[in-house]
Amino acid sequence: MGRTQVVLLYIVVAVLLLFLISRSPNKTPNHRSRRLKVRSTFNFNPAASLDNKHREHIPFDPLIADIERRREDKEWEKHYFQTSHKEIVDAPAAEAQPEWEDFMNAEDYLNDDDRFNVTNRLVVLFPKIDIDPVDGYVTVHELTEWNLNQAQKEVMHRTLRDMEVHDKNHDGFISFAEYEPPSWVRNSNSDNNSFGYDMGWWKEEHFNATDADGDGLLNKTEFNDFLHPADSNNPRLLKWLCKEEVRERDTDRDGKLNFKEFFHGLFDLVRNYDIEEHNSSQISDNMMEGSAKILFGQLDKDGDGYLSEEELLQIIGKLHPSEKYYAKQQADYIISQADTDKDGRLSLTEMIESPYVFYSAIFNEEEEYEYHDEFR
Ligand SMILES: *[C@@H]1O[C@H](CO)[C@@H](O)[C@H](O)[C@H]1NC(C)=O
Ligand SMILES: *[C@@H]1O[C@H](CO)[C@@H](O)[C@H](O)[C@H]1NC(C)=O
Ligand SMILES: *[C@@H]1O[C@H](CO)[C@@H](O)[C@H](O)[C@H]1NC(C)=O
Ligand SMILES: *[C@@H]1O[C@H](CO)[C@@H](O)[C@H](O)[C@H]1NC(C)=O
Ligand SMILES: *[C@@H]1O[C@H](CO)[C@@H](O)[C@H](O)[C@H]1NC(C)=O
């Protein structure tokens, strides 16, 4: 054998060895390569959470949701004291260290296979999701309902936390006098031009539309609607939201939307929504204006060439996608990833075979490099 051939042989052997080592069965790479990371979902600027592009995934597992919630509450408390009660900030600062340790412990816990076994979690959760009907399969509908339920709990938790701050007389209700617009609205701009406030959010009309029983007070449900109008079932509040939508787009200030005002603003939102739903991509500019005209015609029920607030009600769910929309989107994603036999639903076995799809909300890809460290 020549020198080159010997060198080549060595290289082949080395590559084969590496390949074998990396596949060695005692390493269960699918599990060890991943690290679950507790997210900090608390957002100091709620304007971003009203912006659909910055949405956080809903945790699939209530146990994760609980850990994240507790962490978020702590951050929120700290932030709240720093901004609203500057005078007592110095005192709790000493507690910063233990908080961090709690967080580290939670993360260690999640990544300890013996204590937090994702297979066992899925086995426990499966019968809670497979309920409509109980048939040994999780359908898109069941998973959507599950996600929606998780999301609603999350949203209500934040609402109640907010309520504590605003409910100054602690009677469990918010009056308009008690309600103060969020600090980032008040502080950011003295000319009232910051997000939302220039429209009508957090003003009395918004409050009155939310107050379904008209008693001048918002209870928990109503206050939650106040903060998340698009998720509400209150027709008056949805109409108010349409009115705000018209106000924002109505450049000639005639109180309704002509085709131009619709095309340069709303249509893109509806179209993006429909693309995600039906995957109808690749439309040229001309076709786009054409399909905008068709949609405009369909929405303009009285055919006066304008869209009124009432007529916008038909698409308000697309202009402000609701929790239900995101819950369905996340369910579709999970099923597309885990449904190995492509029957459109998940068996427990399929779920257990792709456990990290369910934990993708907290799965941290950057940490994947840790795996490679193992066979150095
Ligand atoms: C998780 O639990 C299952 C069933 O109880 C067990 O077979 C599996 O080995 C456990 N996984 C780990 C990584 O401990
Ligand atoms: C901002 O809005 C508040 C409440 O509506 C009002 O009292 C104040 O005058 C406004 N400030 C400016 C600069 O418009
Ligand atoms: C809101 O309702 C209260 C009480 O019914 C009323 O006095 C007030 O004028 C209303 N405000 C607006 C802006 O509609
Ligand atoms: C709050 O009031 C509404 C009526 O406006 C009612 O439907 C709802 O059940 C109440 N919620 C709670 C938690 O009492
Ligand atoms: C959906 O979009 C993807 C990527 O744009 C494309 O490959 C696929 O064929 C589309 N599916 C349908 C049903 O249109």
Automatic annotation (TrEMBL):
The family database entries (InterPro entries) matched by this protein are listed as: EF-hand-dom_pair, EF_Hand_1_Ca_BS, EF_hand_dom
Q: Which keywords describe this protein according to UniProt?
A: Calcium, Signal
Please name the Pfam families in this protein's record. EF-hand_5 (PF13202), EF-hand_7 (PF13499), EF-hand_8 (PF13833)
Q: Where would one find the signal peptide in this protein?
A: 1-22
PROSITE patterns from the xrefs? EF_HAND_1 (PS00018), EF_HAND_2 (PS50222)
Q: Does the keyword Disulfide bond apply?
A: no
Family annotation (SMART domains): EFh
Which Gene Ontology MF annotations are present? calcium ion binding
* Domain EF-hand: residue ranges: 204-233, 287-322, 326-361
Q: Pull one GO CC term from this UniProt entry.
A: endoplasmic reticulum
Does the record bear Signal in its keywords? Answer: yes
Supply the PANTHER family for this chain. CALCIUM-BINDING EF HAND FAMILY PROTEIN, RETICULOCALBIN
Name this polypeptide is given: Calcium-binding ef hand family protein
Write the lineage as a comma-separated list: Eukaryota, Viridiplantae, Streptophyta, Embryophyta, Tracheophyta
